[in-house]
Amino acid sequence: MNHVTKAFFTQSLKFISFWVIVGGLIFLVGHFIYLFLPFLLAFIMTVSINPLRNFLIRKFRFPRGIAVLTAMIVEIGGFGVIIVLIVIRLIQEIQDIYFNWPHYNDLLQNFFTHWLTKLEIYYLKLPGTDIETINNTVKEFINTIPAVLTSILSMAAKIPEIIIIIAIALVATFFMSKGSQRYLNEILNIFPLEWREHISELGRDFSRAFAGFIRAEFIIFLITLFLSITGLMLFHTRYAIFIGTVTGIFGILPVLGVGIVLVPWSILALISGHSLLAIQLLLLTTLITVLRHIIEPKILGDNVGLDPLFVLISMYIGLASTGVIGLILGPFILIAYQALRKAGVFRNL
To answer: How far is CA 139 from the centre of its chain?
Structure first.
């Protein structure tokens, strides 16, 4: 084996080994993330309140502890009140949907049966067995909705556990924000002296990128949530809070966004004879999508330096590999990779 071939195989083995280790770490973190959930939330909240904390310290000479408490009360407290009010209304709407589900179930079954029959007769001329299979699939999907609603409502039983997680996260947020520099110095002291400058720079790049990502996604989520709920309420749509919240959550996804919810709904409204609602939903989708495409590249590009398509891919891989938590873990790994690449870690791999 000549020198070039040997070097190629050595580099390839290093590269593959590195990514196998990274993949194993992602798998372990994804499946045991619940053990670190309060501290992950604390890290996100710390990143969120630090700009206000720094402003209070720099502009008004607040002591660090007082500045942290003030920032937590203003930002986390204010956002928490809004979340509680939305959740209360959300639970009421979900309960109403659940109790009235037999009526909605009949409407949906009749709707799909009617249109599938017309589709079979006028367009596709499908054999009866094929259309029956489609019809059964639709019915099975519709029948799973009450179970989903029950699962959401059953989360109320976990409120004490959620309160404990939030309380631990809040306490951890205070200590992380108040003693962030001390904790960073203690972490740096683990490494050899010649590594510390590079590790410190890597940490700053990663923290800046991750903070930018959280800030960008949070802004996009708030804009999408506000426009979705406000638009649906203006259209006098029933369950505007519930549907608007679901739309806002899907709006976090890059590229796809609110169209996942609003476009199919507008099509169903159109073919069921509600033309005005269909037009309103399409206008709302267009408004949110246009605003998103204006602000998203700017926010993600300036704060994180990530392409929205790569963010979408990382979210999907994270979701497929580790579940819902992967929606956060996927971009987290992507940001870490970008920071490592910028630091030159991969040059010798």
So the answer is: 29
Based on DSSP, count helices (H) and strands (E) in the chain, helices before strands: 14, 0
Other CB atoms within 10 A of residue 233 CB: 12
Q: Is 136 in the same domain as 230?
A: no
* Verdict on whether the full-model pTM lies above 0.85: no
Q: 196 with 72: CB under 8 angstroms?
A: no
Q: What is the distance between the alpha carbons of residues 53 and 57, in angstroms, rounded to a whole number?
A: 6
In a domain, 13, yes or no: no
CA distances from 11 to 211, 224, 310 (A): 33, 45, 25
Residues 287 and 328 in one domain: yes
**Domain enclosing residue 270, as ranges:** 196-349
Q: What is the pLDDT of residues 286-324, one digit of tens each?
A: 998 888 777 766 666 666 666 767 777 777 777 777 666
Sign of the CA dihedral 66, 201, 343, 199? negative
Q: Do 141 and 183 fall into the same domain?
A: yes
| pLDDT tens-digit readout, 34-45 | 777 888 788 888
User: Which residue among 174, 190, 206 closes a domain?
Assistant: 190
